[in-house]
Amino acid sequence: MKFKKSSVLPLMLLGVLVGCGEKAAAPSNAPAVDPSIVTIAPEFLPRLTIAAAGEGEVADTLRVPARIEVDEQRVARIGAAVTGRLTDIRVELGQRVRRGEVLATLHSTELSAAQLSYLKALSQQGLQQRAVSRANLLFESDVISAAELQKRESELLQAQAELHASHDQLMVLGMTQADINQLGETRTVHSLSSVTSTLDGAVIERKVTPGEVVQPADALFTVADLSHVWLVAEIPEQQAGLVKSGEQAEAEIPALENERIKGRLIFVSDTVKPDTRTVTVRMDVENAARALKPGMLASMLIHGSPRQRVLIPVDAVVREDNKDYVFVQLDAQRFQLRAVKLGQESGSAVSVLEGLKPGEKIVSGGAFHLNNERRRKELEG
């Protein structure tokens, strides 16, 4: 029986296609390749340095943003003691002032009215004093009764009480005892009141202009002693256990070429701010040269207690996709890229918080080249 060539060729192609289909459908038994493991050739090994992860004591340092503020225990917000109109302002913003120095003067009808009341009370007290003296003489001569003498003595006590109240009112309105004594001697009323500084420092705020009417509740000037300032920072609540009041701390000031200054933590808040989940801390810093100015930004450095940590060379760390890795040796020619969480860096070494145990062998030199080799093999499939 004879077949035509044209009919044999399709049958042969059909057989080949069926065979290929069966082969493609056959299950693969090849193991999955771990992309984090790289196998290198023996000639590549001399380019690597292998070392065991070490261990040592490391004091973690917490770095948080901070700002310089005035020491609230060395600041005074100064206002007028009476209602009045400002007639003279004697200081400018930033000017150094001394305790008791006059910052401004104002004209006050309230003050003059209080002085007039004091003079009236002083005169009345004098009249009643003389009336009691005459009553005593008359009583000794049996001219007046004891009841009349007691009446005069009662009127004297009332006059003395009114004088005392007027005296206190003048003190409240800002007059000193010397001013009150002079008022009693001269019997001259004046309406000028002085606004004086209550401490030595610099005027860091001035809120008034000449001719303005002010009230006792108004803060006209803010004077601060800047020989000491505060550095205030917000510590995340997870690190709040690292800070304790009384401990030493450091700060870096970018405006002063990152000059590092030292101080003492004077306050650690007992509460957490619910909106930021932070704890407020304050550091007291000496500022004799006045180089630290309120409003400056800073970085506060808080050193924790030393703890045992895994230590590796900085050159062993591979940075990829914003994560840190090291190559751990599995055997003579295989290495695994492992993610780690790093801690404090000190010189040429860095601590490892998670991902590595002491004694594990890692690539301490040449990790960059090994990672390039891993990438190349990964691209080649």
List keywords for this structure.
single chain, 381 residues, alpha+beta, conserved putative lor/sdh protein from methanococcus maripaludis s2 fold, Elongation Factor Tu (Ef-tu), domain 3, OB fold (Dihydrolipoamide Acetyltransferase, E2P), 6-stranded antiparallel barrel, 4-stranded antiparallel sheet, 5 helices, rod-shaped
Structure report:
The chain has three domains: 37-58 and 307-380, conserved putative lor/sdh protein from methanococcus maripaludis s2 fold (Beta Barrel); 63-72 and 226-305, Elongation Factor Tu (Ef-tu), domain 3 (Beta Barrel), CATH 2.40.30.170; 78-223, OB fold (Dihydrolipoamide Acetyltransferase, E2P), CATH 2.40.50. The chain has helices at 5-25, 109-140, 146-172, 177-186, 367-380, and strands spanning 37-39, 49-52, 54-70, 75-78, 84-89, 96-97, 102-107, 192-196, 201-206, 213-214, 221-224, 228-236, 248-253, 259-268, 278-286, 297-313, 318-320, 323-329, 334-346, 349-354, 361-365. A hairpin with a 4-residue loop joins strand 18 and strand 19 (334-346). The protein has 381 residues and is α+β, with helices and mostly antiparallel strands. It contains five helices and 21 strands. A six-stranded antiparallel beta barrel has the order 3-12-15-14-13-16. The protein has a four-stranded antiparallel beta sheet with strand order 4-11-9-6, with no helix packed on it. Residues 1-27 have low confidence and may be disordered.
Shape: rod-shaped
Average pLDDT level: 86
| Corresponding CATH architecture of the largest domain | Beta Barrel
- CA-atom Rg in angstroms: 44 Å
> Strand tally, please?
21
